[in-house]
Design brief:
mainly alpha, 505 residues, three-stranded antiparallel beta sheet
């Protein structure tokens, strides 16, 4: 029996459909499928059947949080977008955090403060970094919706209380009733029930400062910054960043120690403290924003974020701010200046092929690491973070390296090109890096290429994923990754303001 190419395609599609249905049956038998997992499955089926991307938002009565201001904005923006598939992806992605991840919101708790818990998506825990990036995209519209503003303030307070529990932890549980799978980690400070994971990442503390400043900048509400809980959390965050300026010889009795029994070297630290370091003025970060162990202790992107976040939050403690505190103000400014000087002195290197660029990580001894990771803060995201302008010559030269084979975690295949990282491994492209590439570009053609690639990367699901294989967008990780969805939504809103002709025609 012989078959035509067209018949081959039909049989292949039918085979995929059967496999998907069997997979769904197995999942339903094992656990309840979430709305987003179902969207992922139906998206793959639609992709193989050649159907358009559809709206995957849950019905309004099943959404975790509803904001009329955000819903109105979505309607206004999507109605003007020329590419209907891109508009539908925006409709799905931008509200995804509100629709599916605000699992706990109390407008007024026992202490009189709002409390909000935001999960990452398919992991039932709240990361300081992820939660900031998930909700900060709604902050410009907080004043239009009092309930939204209260919910966002609840995230600020939840982050502050989390830092008071443990300033070296990256992720937290809702309460003390859930035991982390990482309770056996050997750690200083020790693991406790409120913690989901205890990896210290400099950008986690910066994320708290960034969200706090964004709340004040957008709402001009002074009340949280006069609250002792928030002020004490800021003081603890600043102290922690300052302590981590110490080099290995100064830090004989380290405040942070981490070891995990694992087969993955990126999930633990050498001798519990990581690679030796020499004082640079910068602050150490044993783990990266990807939750992977750093190769060298001083990350340039996270320290750049620290400078920006510290300088911005210092305004709150200035004489003209809502919570004047000359001592803390001076401590923050001095710390920011020391870190900035360290970046300028140790973080700029001469690349053999490109000349002066930013290193990814350094150790203070002269050792440097050239690469970039998709997770933010990254070197690619420096303008997005507020460290420099998009046309800064040093950044542009660094950008050439990052988006080329000279970056070991940049790759190109038949499905597209972009930056990944060691978290998943070589050959896996993260849509987050493509979004960042578009956010930081000044070239219309480059941005349009990124938008097309992002649209295709959804594999018909209508959502951003953690990563996809360079040869096949249907082979992806994490169908429910709210941070990436918020990041995409923010890209569309940025283009609507800065380059409307690219999406509105």
């Amino acid at each position: 029996m012989t078959t035509t190419p067209k018949e081959h395609l039909v049989f292949a599609r039918l085979f995929v459909i059967v496999c998907c249905l069997l997979g769904a049956a197995l999942l339903v038998n094992g656990e309840e499928m979430s709305q987003q997992h179902l969207a992922g499955l139906s998206g793959i089926l639609r992709g193989y059947l050649g159907q358009a991307i559809t709206n995957q938002r849950p019905p309004i009565d099943r959404r975790m949080f509803v904001s009329p201001a955000i819903d109105n904005l979505i309607d206004q923006i999507s109605a003007k977008m020329v590419d209907q598939d891109l508009a539908t992806i925006f409709q799905n992605c931008y509200p995804n955090t509100l629709d599916t991840t605000v699992t706990h919101f109390v407008p007024k708790g026992e202490d009189g403060l709002p409390d909000t818990f935001v999960i990452t998506g398919d992991i039932q825990a709240m990361w300081l970094r992820d939660s900031t990036n998930q909700v900060i995209v709604y902050m410009p519209y907080a004043k239009q919706d009092p309930n939204l503003q209260t919910m966002l303030l609840g995230v600020v307070y939840r982050q502050a209380k989390s830092i008071l529990i443990d300033s070296y932890a990256n992720a937290f549980n809702l309460d003390n009733t859930t035991q982390s799978p990482w309770m056996s980690d050997r750690r200083i400070p020790p693991m406790t029930l409120p913690l989901h994971e205890g990896k210290y990442e400099l950008d986690s503390l910066c994320a708290f400062l960034k969200l706090s400043y964004s709340y004040w900048n957008e709402t001009q509400d002074p009340s949280p910054f006069q609250n002792l809980i928030w002020q004490t959390a800021v003081q603890k965050a600043v102290n922690t960043i300052q302590i981590q300026q110490k080099d290995s010889w100064e830090d004989k009795n380290p405040e942070y120690f981490f070891q995990r029994e694992t087969s993955a070297p990126t999930d633990t630290l050498m001798h519990g403290v990581g690679i030796p370091s020499k004082r640079t003025g910068m602050s150490k970060s044993p783990f990266r924003p990807s939750d992977d162990a750093a190769t060298l202790p001083f990350p340039i992107a996270a320290n750049s974020m620290a400078v920006v976040s510290l300088k911005r939050i210092s305004q709150i403690f200035s004489n003209n701010g809502p919570a004047p505190n000359p001592g803390l103000f001076q401590q923050i400014i001095s710390l920011a200046n020391e870190i900035e000087d360290g970046i300028r002195k140790f973080g700029i290197i001469n690349h053999v092929n490109f000349g002066q660029i930013y290193a990814f990580e350094v150790d203070g001894f002269g050792n440097t690491y050239v690469m970039d990771d998709a997770n933010i803060p990254s070197l690619l995201s420096l303008p997005y973070l507020g460290w420099c302008e998009k046309d800064d010559p040093l950044y542009l030269n660094t950008r050439k390296v990052l988006l080329s084979p000279d970056n070991p975690y940049w790759c190109k295949g038949s499905a597209g090109s972009g930056i990944g990282g060691p978290h998943i491994g070589l050959g896996w492209i993260w849509p987050m890096s493509i979004i960042t590439q578009a956010e930081t570009s000044t070239n219309d053609d480059e941005i349009l290429g990124c938008l097309e690639l992002l649209k295709n990367s959804t594999a018909g699901t209508g959502f951003m994923h953690e990563s996809f294989w360079k040869e096949d967008v249907d082979n992806f990780t994490r169908s429910w990754f709210a941070w990436a969805n918020s990041h995409f939504g923010n890209l569309i809103l940025t283009l609507a303001k800065e380059r409307p002709h690219l999406i509105f025609g």
